[in-house]
Specification:
The protein is mainly beta and 413 residues long. It is built from 1 helix and 36 strands. 34% of the residues are buried.
Amino acid sequence: MKKMFLLLITIVVSLSVFSQDFWSPLQTPNDENVHSIGVTKTGITFIGTSSGLYKSVDDGLNWTKIDLEIYNLFDLFIDKHDRIFVLVNDSNNLSYAVHYSLDEGDEFNKIQVPYEGYFYNSRVYANDSYIYVYSNDLVYKTSDFGVSWSNSCVYHFVEPKPGSTLSFRKMLENKNGELFLYSYVNEEPKRAVVFKSVDKGDTWNIIGEFRSDRHVIDMAFNSDETPYVICSDSLYYFNEIASVWESYSLPFRWGYSLAIDINDVIYITDDLDGSSIAKSIDGGENWEPITNNITQNSGLGNLYISPDGYLYVYNRLHKSTNKIFEPVQVEINTCSEFSVYPNPTTNIINISTEQFPNNEISSITITDISGREMNVNTVNNARIDISNLNEGTYIITVSAGNKVYRSKFLVMR
């Protein structure tokens, strides 16, 4: 009798845990589909829809439209410094631009992209040195926020046919600064291809090819920066020791999107009914569904993991009810307690160390509004010589303890 009672309790608890909703649907402006998404380290959410760019500071409960000149929004990317980049077609005459913000979307600046024609499946990526815009067969890059651009051809079609082009999915970068691009090649034999560049995107080489008759492809790194790709019904990963690509079978006929969290849990979605999502905790050998609170034909597709540990799926926007991992706690603080004086200033700015944990400052950087780091003379942790800076607005970033503080100051001459 006691064993039966314990078994019953176990079943009830298991059913309760299993029945908990993994997903929480989020209402989007005008119930629109989401084309792209990005979340800052402070938890501010940005989404791109057919009508423009929106921002939410309350986990998607309310949205504010950001006033930008946008005819079509192609892509949204937020880098490790919380800089926001939005690739758009800003008029119906095929003019392209990148809007970027250095202050979590309060202000945006615009740079033109020197491309004439139609961008197909266009994307934007940024690191500490360059902004990249990639589409068709070309990668454009700028190191000076649009003052000058260069470009490289990723793939050359020997006998191009009408419509022959690359369909880019994603650009990734490892700790060595090597760039990876994953794309569908629309020529016979039709296939998905992984390209790699070791020279900041000037030249590209093929490091993996996978037969595919569909544009359904995606790529992600695990914690060791091993590239994983999905193509049709297979998950491929690069075995660096053997220098070969190995694979596991997917639980779906057509895998669509791929994401890997910091604990190497792999998440995938299905392209067929837009409601199938699965995860693997053993590198792709075994899979389990995570479709709690997902209805049939939900119109899902793309996966995104936010810096604060949540999993998102869209086009119909859903967010994991709970965090899928606990992120490393680095707080970004932009509150008014961080101040510099005098502000405006001419030659010197001062910081009160009492504002920071244990009165200790580990690093200070100053950038202009385009994100370029300035060379300044730090007299000590509390006094900085900025006499070499031109007149204008600058952003000062201070690291102290496990927190990062940001503020603005004005230089006047």
